[in-house]
Amino acid sequence: MKIYTRTGDAGQTGVIGGRVDKDDERVEAYGTVDELNCFLGQAMSFMDPERFQDLLEDMLKVQHELFDCGSDLAVLKKEARPYKVTAEMVDALEVWIDKYDAETPDITRFILPGGSQVSSALHICRTVCRRAERRVVTLARTQEINPEVRKYLNRLSDLFFTIARTANFREGVADVEYERSAHVFRRKS
Fold first, then answer.
1. pLDDT of 102 over the 80 cut
2. Are strands 176-177 and 111-112 parallel, antiparallel or unpaired?
3. Membrane-crossing residues (predicted)?
4. Distance between CA 124 and CA 106 in Å, rounded?
5. Greatest Cα-to-Cα distance within the chain, rounded to the nearest angstrom
6. pTM
7. In the chain, where are the structural domains located?
8. How far apart are alpha carbons 119 and 123 in whole angstroms?
């Protein structure tokens, strides 16, 4: 199989159920999800396999689920094929958020991105995830989408924030609090 097909040379690309312009909102949405998956792969490459074994396993699952998100976003009409992203996948992210959040100290102020290399990379994932979510919101205004993808991306950005803090904690690096922040978060119960 050849990597190049030449079918996109005229500025269009194939999606599930037809062809669209390469700058279509649908392509922009799943392209941003693909970009997020690349940044996640990079963040994972910074993780020590012993210290972050659980995170590496969970993030590999997220990488597969991001492919599912992209696949669902590439569907022009639901009738073309069943969606892959489910409410159960969103629920699983919430379980991980709670698990990893329990490992970190209480947070009372806004946190600046950074700290360890792993944490910094995960904060990049968080912001790219938020952009992907915005692209999906824009797409959903005019075209049919799987609404679970939007929910998944929303929850995933929260997971990235949480595990960025977990990475700092495991590596003995303090989170950097925003100096001008009032106490805006409640302590864990």
1. yes
2. antiparallel
3. none
4. 22
5. 58
6. 0.92
7. 12-177
8. 6
Q: Where in 106-162 does DSSP place strands (E)?
A: 111-112
Residue 34 near residue 71 (C-beta atoms within 8 A): no
The CA–CA distances, whole Å, from 108 to 13, 94, 113, 124, 145 equal: 47, 20, 15, 22, 36
Beta-carbon contacts of 3 under 8 Å, excluding residues fewer than 6 positions away, are none
**79: which 2 tokens?**
């009738």
Query: Other C-beta atoms within 10 Å of 63: how many?
Result: 14
* Amino acid letter, 123: H
Cβ(176)–Cβ(111) under 8 Å?
yes
The pLDDT confidence band at residue 7, using thresholds 50, 70 and 90, is confident
Fold of the CATH domain 12-177: Hypothetical Protein Ta1238; Chain: A; (1.20.1200)
**Strand, helix or coil for residue 21:** strand
Residue type, 72: D
